[in-house]
């Protein structure tokens, strides 16, 4: 270990230099590295590493076995190649699979938290204290895989709501976790889901009991901090019969040259009459102007709706060098509803291949898909979605709308919808358009005294409004800002 | 597209059949091409459900069948009466008849046409004007799939038409392809090569008809070159019988100011696959691909289109409509690619399907791939049923249910059928729709 620490010191010195450089570069506002000691694993993946992660996490036996099974299955799989994204082959042996801030004893109040860490949160714009008071948001901040501080636990506890880091939930509510873990996204699902199941280090676990309406928006922030660590978290949200929860997820990552891998898994279970609203704002580091660096974001998100339940996904994707993400809803119960609202913005050399899957199995199930893609610079932005109506899904209804906007002549916008219908009583509609901001629109705003840049920003915001209005207030404001930031300078 | 497929003996079977064909071919240029295709075929794998472009079409049954190459069938029992029954009679036309892929001079009727355009079989054309065939033949297979190689390696002859510059044909050419298979499965690979001259206008009707009781596999490849300001209208009507497989690929290259209108009507056939690839290689091009498919029984109808906008200022329109009854399955996959240079492109694509029965299924995959920013591209897809309220309205006027349904089907199909420019053909197609759905003709 001592060798490794000395290497790390060198790294850190280099990091300081980077830090100065990065701070003077205002393009990526959140590109800084927090200087705290991290516990790290050597690079590479093997059964031994999987078992070590499991040991560090104090997993019960079944979880360790599950991880090992997932790892063995992963070895048999091939990396998926069907997405319309290009990237050099990922060397999975060159990734550090675990990194956590050095373990300290359990903390009672915020004062005990490492001040360095608190500063990071301040820079991120999530001063925990303030958020607690002002925005009524309980934050479970996942800082490089280990959940550092969970707020509002007590308020939630009163209502019987469980909102805790996954590792704690495994300890405190083993039965619940065992029942739902991997029930929506099994490790056999796909390459990255298997990888995640083997090496996941942290995540969030939410359980809303029967008939309870969660009084506040639950939120986690993810940050990838250490160099070359993949972030593999898992989120499980369960809304029991008649419950309601709104869950927010925001992501930022500091600036690094090497591409970093992020392979998360999200599982949602909405029981009879329950509602889950899952919102994501993702602004991982997208790489620099020349497409160097950035995060690879390969995420599997899926929810199951039982009778009369509703799952609503809202996502604003502005970051990551590569986004590969298809939040899906399985409408299993009769009269269940699935919604998907998405804004995906790509600039410079970013690539996004994102969309949704709506699988209608129950009768009278309904789904709505609204996807807005904006491509600028040299980027490529694809919508890929599946609408499947099963044989017994009588009266199923789907409406999909995918609009793309092109902001330069070097970028690409693509639409790949798949529609599979096995039932005669269902109605499915899909429409897509691709266009650019018309000169007439800009001219009109110009002659009202609005500068071209502001005009573009207004038009783009109008274009995305349908999706933004689905976001909770705080996120909507942030999303609007992010959009302007991502597209800065992309209009000639 | 990289897919792992078990090595099927289908490849061996088709390569073996190709060997015999090539040995008999005396034309050095063609046999050279065929040999190359044979080698490529032997290295290829046929698409499976894991191949993205064939995701919804299962070829297992076709590929496991034993075959007889159509060139091994000598006796032809088709008479002029049969032709009379099979062809469209409602409008004036020139008639070319092919039986099992072999041109039948006696049954055809095209005396006048010989003076107006160049028309012959591909083999004869290759002997007569080697240069001409060499510069066009097998030049534009956009996607070299196993079926391309299979077709090229196995074909014995085909149709060559060259429309001279400035020639405007008054009457359409009706090409009747009659299949009369023998034994387990008759395999007919066939090729068309149409070279359309500058400032000319031509309409061609390709009608595929199968004799009752025969089993066959038609594999057709058509290449079309359209010279500047030329107009080409193709009406493809597929009335294969219920035991037949039909895999058809049309590749088109359009020069500037040209118009290409392709109408694809699919009625018969057990498994039908139509591929249309057009390359808009010039400015100010118009390209219209319309289709109507009526599925019944256990039919499987797969339509695939690909439009490549390579240059600026062009327009493409696509409208495919499907009516599915019985346990039929309809597949539509349309792709529009707009290249970086192709500014000011307008591309519209639409696929609507109605399902009439509990067991019919639909898969549709409309795709846009766009790299230019000053474009207007839209696509849409809908799947639904006959409108209940509309049906109720008609019923309340005292019209019986069957008739009312037929009226609604008629209304649904109209937008495609109406775009047919030959009036007589329009009527024929309308009545075919009802015949195929076992319903009354409302007209």
Describe it.
The complex is a heterodimer of chains A (492) and B (443). Chain A is of the alpha/beta class and 492 residues long. Chain A has one domain. Chain A has twelve helices and 24 strands. In chain A, the strands form three sheets. In chain A, strands 4-3-7-9-12-14-17-20-22-24 form a ten-stranded mixed β-sheet, covered by helices on one side. In chain A, strands 13-15-18-21-19-16 form a six-stranded parallel barrel. A two-stranded antiparallel sheet of chain A has the order 1-2. In chain A, a hairpin with a 2-residue loop joins strand 3 and strand 4. In chain A, helix 10 packs across helix 11. Chain A starts with a helix and ends in a 6-residue tail after the last helix. The relative contact order of chain A is 0.09. With 443 residues, chain B is α/β, with parallel strands linked by helices. Chain B is globular. Chain B has a domain of 272 residues. In chain B, a hairpin with a 2-residue loop joins strand 2 and strand 3. In chain B, 26% of the residues lie in helices and 37% in strands. Chain B is built from eleven helices and 20 strands. In chain B, helix 6 packs across helix 7. In chain B, the strands form two sheets. In chain B, strands 1, 4, 5, 7, 9, 11, 13, 15, 17 and 19 form a ten-stranded mixed β-sheet that branches. In chain B, strands 3-2-6-8-10-12-14-16-18-20 form a ten-stranded mixed β-sheet. The chains are: A alpha/beta (492), B alpha/beta (443). At the A-B interface, strand 23 and strand 24 of A face strand 19 and strand 20 of B. Strand 23 of chain A pairs antiparallel with strand 19 of chain B, so a sheet runs across the interface.
């Amino acid at each position: 270990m001592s060798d490794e620490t000395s290497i790390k010191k060198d790294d850190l010195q280099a990091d300081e230099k980077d830090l100065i450089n990065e701070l003077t570069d205002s393009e990526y506002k959140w590109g800084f590295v927090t200087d705290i000691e991290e516990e790290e694993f050597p690079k590479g993946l093997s059964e031994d590493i999987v078992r070590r992660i499991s040991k560090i996490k104090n997993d019960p036996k079944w979880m360790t076995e599950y991880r090992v099974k997932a790892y063995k299955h992963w070895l048999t799989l091939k990396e998926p190649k069907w997405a319309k994204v290009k990237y050099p082959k990922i060397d999975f042996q060159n990734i550090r699979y675990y990194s956590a801030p050095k373990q300290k004893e359990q903390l009672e109040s915020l004062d005990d938290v490492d001040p360095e860490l608190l500063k990071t949160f301040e820079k991120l714009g999530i001063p925990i204290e303030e958020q607690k008071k002002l925005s009524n948001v309980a934050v479970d901040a996942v800082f490089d895989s280990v959940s550092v501080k969970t707020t509002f636990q007590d308020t939630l506890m009163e209502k019987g709501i469980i909102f805790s880091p996954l590792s704690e939930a495994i300890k405190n509510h083993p039965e619940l976790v065992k029942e739902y873990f991997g029930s929506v996204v099994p490790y056999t699902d796909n390459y990255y889901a298997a990888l995640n199941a083997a090496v996941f280090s942290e995540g969030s676990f939410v359980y809303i009991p029967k008939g309870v309406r969660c009084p506040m928006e639950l939120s986690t922030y993810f940050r990838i901090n250490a160099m070359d660590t993949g972030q593999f978290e898992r989120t499980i949200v369960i809304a029991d019969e008649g419950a309601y929860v709104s869950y927010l997820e925001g992501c930022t990552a500091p600036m690094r040259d090497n591409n970093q891998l992020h392979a998360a898994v999200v599982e949602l279970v909405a029981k009879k009459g329950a509602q889950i609203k899952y919102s994501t704002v993702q602004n991982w580091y997208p790489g620099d102007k020349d497409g160097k660096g950035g995060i690879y974001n390969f995420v599997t998100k899926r929810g199951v709706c039982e009778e009369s339940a509703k799952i609503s996904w809202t996502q604003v994707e502005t970051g990551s060098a590569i986004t590969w993400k298809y939040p899906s809803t399985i409408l299993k119960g009769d009269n269940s509803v699935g919604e998907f609202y998405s804004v995906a913005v790509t600039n410079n050399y970013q690539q996004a291949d994102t969309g949704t899957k709506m699988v209608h199995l129950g009768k009278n199930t309904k789904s709505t898909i609204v996807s807005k893609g904006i491509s600028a610079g040299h980027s490529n932005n694809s919508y890929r979605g599946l609408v499947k109506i099963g044989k017994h899904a009588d009266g199923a209804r789907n409406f999909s709308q995918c609009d793309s906007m092109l902001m330069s002549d070097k970028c690409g916008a693509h639409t790949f919808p798949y529609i599979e219908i096995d039932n005669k009583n269902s109605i499915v509609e899909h429409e897509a358009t691709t266009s650019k901001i018309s000169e007439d629109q800009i001219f009109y705003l110009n002659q009202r005294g609005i500068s071209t840049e502001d005009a573009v920003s207004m038009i783009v915001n109008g274009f995305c409004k349908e999706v933004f209005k689905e976001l909770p207030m705080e996120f909507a404001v942030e999303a609007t800002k992010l959009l302007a930031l991502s597209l800065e300078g992309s209009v000639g | 597209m990289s897919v792992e497929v078990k090595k099927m003996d289908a490849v061996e079977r088709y390569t073996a059949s190709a060997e015999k064909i090539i040995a008999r071919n005396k034309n050095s240029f063609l046999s050279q091409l065929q040999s190359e295709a044979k080698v490529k075929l032997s290295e290829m794998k046929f698409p499976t459900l894991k191949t993205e472009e064939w995701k919804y079409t299962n070829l297992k049954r076709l590929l496991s069948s034993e075959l007889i190459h159509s060139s091994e069938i000598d006796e032809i029992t088709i008479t002029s009466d049969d032709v009379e029954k099979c062809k469209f009679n409602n409008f004036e036309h020139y008639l070319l008849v092919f039986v099992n892929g072999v041109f039948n001079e006696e049954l055809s009727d095209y005396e006048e046409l010989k003076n107006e355009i160049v028309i012959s079989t591909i083999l004869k054309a290759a002997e007569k004007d080697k240069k001409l065939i060499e510069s066009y033949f097998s030049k534009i297979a956009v996607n070299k799939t196993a079926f391309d190689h299979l077709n090229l390696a196995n074909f014995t002859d085909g149709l060559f038409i060259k429309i001279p510059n400035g020639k405007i044909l008054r009457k359409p050419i009706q090409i009747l392809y009659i299949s009369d298979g023998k034994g387990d499965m008759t395999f007919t690979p066939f090729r068309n090569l149409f070279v359309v001259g500058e400032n000319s206008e031509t309409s061609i009707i390709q009608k595929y008809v199968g004799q009752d009781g025969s089993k066959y596999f038609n594999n057709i490849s058509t290449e079309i070159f359209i010279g500047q300001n030329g107009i080409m209208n193709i009406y493809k009507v597929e009335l294969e019988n219920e035991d037949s497989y039909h895999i058809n690929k049309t590749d088109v290259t359009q020069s500037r100011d040209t118009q290409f209108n392709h109408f694809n009507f699919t009625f018969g056939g057990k498994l039908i696959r139509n591929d249309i690839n057009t390359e808009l290689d010039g400015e100010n091009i118009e390209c219209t691909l319309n289709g109507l498919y009526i599925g019944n029984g256990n039919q499987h109808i797969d339509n695939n289109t690909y439009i490549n906008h390579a240059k600026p200022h062009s327009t493409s329109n696509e409208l495919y409509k499907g009516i599915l009854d019985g346990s039929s399955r309809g597949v539509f996959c349309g792709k529009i690619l707009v290249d970086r240079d192709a500014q000011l492109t307008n591309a519209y694509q639409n696929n609507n399907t109605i399902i009439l029965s509990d067991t019919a299924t639909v898969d549709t995959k409309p795709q846009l791939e766009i790299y230019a920013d000053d474009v207007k591209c839209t696509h849409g897809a809908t799947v639904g049923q006959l409108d209940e309220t509309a049906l109720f309205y008609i019923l309340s006027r005292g019209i019986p249910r069957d008739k009312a349904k037929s009226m609604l089907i008629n209304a649904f199909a109209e937008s495609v059928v109406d775009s047919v420019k030959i009036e007589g053909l329009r009527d024929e197609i309308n009545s075919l729709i009802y015949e195929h759905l076992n319903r009354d003709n409302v007209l």
